[in-house]
Design brief:
DNA polymerase, domain 1, 6 strands, about 240 residues, 6-stranded parallel β-sheet, alpha/beta, Rossmann fold, 9 helices
């Protein structure tokens, strides 16, 4: 493990790193389908929705996105996903409600406890593409208690653009090397590393569902790897 003694802030990706989007969204969609007698491969729909929303949001300028946030992106991409999946009959008002499925995601089983342990030693912040309201809702549910909430919605650009990784240290009044970016996504960490952040890779092999291809192994730009947030707390010497 690299020397991380200068770290003051942990900056977290949220979707997939601390909350389980795949299980939550696919279960909500399946429940909707059962209630309305609509037969569909809801797991495939969930994955397509996530892929489409990431494709639209990542590396975008905030002003170019619908509503300027991830909720707008989720609503717009859902229309395309449903069209591709033969689900055009689902009413617009129901599609509007489906965006809120993402606001009711559960944390990974380790996440709330590990988060609380890490908070005894470090300032805790988000650094995420998710909307401010979405972060609030899933954090109250977990619960997660953040010292700071930074969403790309507040900035001029979305990850993986360099700007969010530069803005986080500036807003928190620390040096880049005093921030440890915590994420389950290799590209996110690589982008943060390029801007001088230290990096922690969290293994979430079932992020896209059980039996899917595991997350690629982290690269040499990663300073520390952990199985989950409790394991990260152990490795960083946080109290139990």
């Amino acid at each position: 493990m690299a020397d991380l003694s200068k770290i003051k802030v942990l900056a977290f990706d949220v979707g997939g790193t601390v909350v389980d989007w795949h299980t939550g969204v696919s279960n909500h969609l399946a429940s909707y389908g059962l209630e309305h007698s609509i037969d569909a491969d809801w797991i495939a729909v969930t994955k397509a929705w996530r892929t489409a929303s990431l494709t639209q949001a990542l590396n975008s300028r905030t002003d170019d996105l619908p509503r300027g946030n991830m909720d707008g992106v989720l609503r717009e991409t859902l229309d395309t996903v449903f069209a591709d999946s033969g689900l055009e009959s689902i009413p617009a008002k129901d599609r509007d409600a489906m965006v809120w499925y993402w606001h009711h995601l559960d944390a990974w089983p380790d996440a709330a406890e590990g988060h609380a342990r890490l908070a005894t030693k470090y300032l805790m912040s988000t650094l995420t593409i998710l909307s401010l309201r979405l972060i609030i809702d899933v954090s109250r549910r977990a619960p997660f208690h953040w010292d700071s909430v930074i969403s790309c919605e507040m900035l001029d650009a979305y990850k993986l653009d360099p700007l969010p990784y530069r803005e986080a240290p500036r807003l928190l009044q620390v040096e880049a090397e005093e921030v440890l970016m915590v994420a389950a996504h290799r590209l996110d960490l690589e982008a943060g590393h390029r801007e001088g952040l230290r990096t922690a890779f969290i293994h979430r092999p079932t992020e896209w569902g059980v039996g899917t291809t595991p997350t690629p192994e982290a690269g040499d730009f990663v300073d520390i790897e952990a199985r989950d947030l409790n394991d990260l707390a152990d490795r960083l010497g946080c109290d139990t």
